[in-house]
Amino acid sequence: MAELQKILHVDDDDDIRIIAKMALEVVGNLNVEQCSSGMDALEIAPQYKPDLFLLDVMMPVMGGEETWQKLRNIPGMENVPAIFMTAKAQDAATGALIELGAIAVITKPFDPMELCSQIRSAWDRHQNSG
Amino acid sequence: MLQSIRRNQIAIGVLMLAIGVAFGIYSLGFGSVLVAAETWSFYSGQLPIGTAALLGLLLGSLVLALTRRGKIAKLQSLVMDKQAREIYFQDRALNAHAIVSITDPDSKILSVNDNFLKTFEYERDEIIGQTHELIHPSPYSGAVSVFNDIFEAVKQNKVWSGEHKAITKTGKTLFMQCTVVPLHDEDGNHVKNVSMRTDVTETRLAEADRYLTSMLDKLQDEVYIYNTDDLRISYMNETALNRCEWTLKLARTKRITHTASNFEEGLFRKHVEPLFNGEKESVVIETLHDKGFVEINTRLYVGPDDVPVFVSVLRDITERKEVDRARMESVSVVSHELRTPLTSIKGALRLLQSGAAGVLEPGAAAIVDVADRNSERLLKVVNDILDFEKIRAGKMDINKRPVKLSDFIMDATTMNKGYGDEHQVKFVATGIENDAFVSGDSDRLMQVISNLMSNAVKYSPKNGTVVVNLKDTGRKWRISVSDNGPGIPESARASMFDSFVQSDPVDGIIRKGTGLGLPIAKEIVERHAGKIDFESTVGEGSTFYFELPKIESPELENPKDRAQLAAE
């Protein structure tokens, strides 16, 4: 079973990026690369080669869903799983993201002390289901 | 000479007799001929012919007078008979047709016909001696009663005629066409009143029906009436006919399934099921129709021929949907704008608390706790308002999956332990059974139990215990949360689940909260076909509970389900 090491985090909010970075690196001991937009993510992803995408849903210009669809079109990125983070608490939207293939949807505000274990358990579940 | 005189006498006598006979025949017919003939044979030998003739004439006249009188009497009696018969028949006809009552001048009822008794549902001895006030409904305040109106008219020797409402002994309302005639004796004294009424209720109802039907036709909503068995249409209002481009005649050859291209009879039958077992009086569905969003409200009625019918009212809600959508959109944006900074604030505080950003001095840690608690509170308010808006817009989604209640209650006590610790209140779970399952949205149900648990904590005394109990009530599982708080007075029961209401506490201490927790919990429980309620004794404590329908322990064949359950 592949181990989760590298996460590409995309969020347009600077402060949330700071909190998430600390939660994943300091608390979760993961390797994190961050971008403030979907366009940046498309540039960085092929070089960084993350194990998982952590994407904010509501971003200007290119939203989380669209960013993921474009990321999946990059050769070698087709099977990289995605977890979405959203501050929009609409149940239907969450369901739709799972339908699209997201392995988890984490609602904001998230608990930085729990973020890593939430991500890891979704990762493990995904690895087990093949 | 004598001979000639005698011959003359005979001639005159014969002539007289002939005239008499003629009269006799005229007046008496065959009988007087016989009398005349006998008179003639009797007297012809002894009396002089002139005398006999005179006698004949006299007799004839007598017979004539006698028979004329007899004839007049006979004629008179015939006419009288006819009149009596006519009156009798008129009376019978009137009695059969009308409701007749006769009163004295003070309106005391002297006699009534059978129709009166039948119509107003009284026995004869119940009504005799009463006044007509009995059948007149009490007038609206300020209005002159019809009873008084009639009373005044007949007092002034006027005939009263008009329509009035009447009530029967059992309280049925009828419409009466009525004429009241005052009767006077030869000296002009008012002695009686005769009232004749006709029941025109049917006519009035038919008129009202026509009126209602024409109003139904002009309604903006579409109205359909159709048979429950074969769904055959018996009525569609104009609005409905116009949309389908049918005539009423054509519509009566169609079934309700023909009124929409996406009508699914199986789904419809399932939808109306609660109408038959008395669970609901009406069922409502929102659906995308051929021409946009519609809301369809269906009821079950028993028609005039004891035939059960569905009545569906279809309302175009495209505009309302648009408003709802725009509203939800703005709520969603506001929610996003509030949650995003809250994410950073809460995240930062949690990291500070945990020491991930460096260990804090005890004084600083206490201040960070205050900030964390209040950011949590702010988040709760935002979430409650958002949920409340979702409920109002009908947008709260309930995603049901099997929920194992033992795990659910354990998770709830774990989740709320922090809040309990803060208030020095502990949770105890009792009655836990392993084989207890319901079908529900575990996140939403967690919201319900957390609300009840945090309320219980809020109202518990220091070092108190909140008991979470699971109980089998037959077809449902009851989850209750009990505290030893001040209790809730009965007067607060009615508004307990109303929005933005926080009842005045018996102990005078105001607790923090939005006043939305219980109404949201109620909505969630009801969306699970369950019920929520409470029992309380002032000074002893309160027990809030919710009940959810049982399901069999689920076979988790579907790995997706298993993954979901594991995630929960």
From TrEMBL, chain A:
Gene3D superfamilies: 3.40.50.2300. It holds the Pfam family Response_reg. The keyword Phosphoprotein applies. Keywords: Phosphoprotein. InterPro entries: Bact_response_regulator (IPR050595), CheY-like_superfamily (IPR011006), Sig_transdc_resp-reg_receiver (IPR001789). It comes from the Bacteria. The modification 4-aspartylphosphate is found at residue 56. Residues 6-123 form the Response regulatory domain. This is Response regulator.
From TrEMBL, chain B:
Residues 160-212 form the PAC domain. Keywords: ATP-binding, Kinase, Membrane, Nucleotide-binding, Phosphoprotein, Transferase, Transmembrane, Transmembrane helix, Two-component regulatory system. GO terms for molecular function: ATP binding. Residues 333-552 form the Histidine kinase domain. The chain crosses the membrane at residues 12-37, 49-67. It is an enzyme of class 2 (transferase). Its EC number is 2.7.13.3. It comes from the Bacteria. It catalyses: ATP + protein L-histidine = ADP + protein N-phospho-L-histidine. Residues 100-157 form the PAS domain. PROSITE patterns: HIS_KIN, PAC, PAS. PANTHER family: HISTIDINE KINASE 1, TWO-COMPONENT HISTIDINE KINASE. This is histidine kinase. It comes from Pseudohalocynthiibacter aestuariivivens.
